Amino acid sequence: MGKLTNFGKVWVGVQTRDHNPAHFHLKGAGVRAMIAIDPVTILRGKVPSDLWPQVQAWAIANRAALVAEWNKCNPLYPTV
Asked: How is 42-69 classified by DSSP, letter by letter?
């Protein structure tokens, strides 16, 4: 899994051989969630309310990096 950043003890990553829709994962410190890349929404799991604004802002600002990592890790399901 490609780790992209972290928020304290919670890290952000894209898994290889994953499924659509294009998404990333939050894991750590009691957090396990799957977040869509575009639009940035919680697909599965829960994100603490104090962490969600940071994650959402980071994902929007780093959309190109998320898409590039998704496409590298999941070439069968490319996104633009």
From this structure: EEEE---TTTHHHHHHHHHHTHHHHHHH
Query: Over its length of 80 residues, how does the chain's per-residue pLDDT go in tens digits?
Result: 678 899 999 999 999 999 999 999 999 989 999 999 999 999 999 999 999 999 999 999 999 999 999 999 999 989 87
Provide φ and ψ at 39, rounded to 5°: -75, 160
Read off the pTM: 0.92
Give the three-class secondary structure for 12: strand
Q: Give the Cβ contact number of residue 29 at 10 Å.
A: 14
Cβ–Cβ under 8 Å, residues 39 and 48: no
Q: Which of 17, 21, 13 is nearest to 40 (CA)?
A: 21
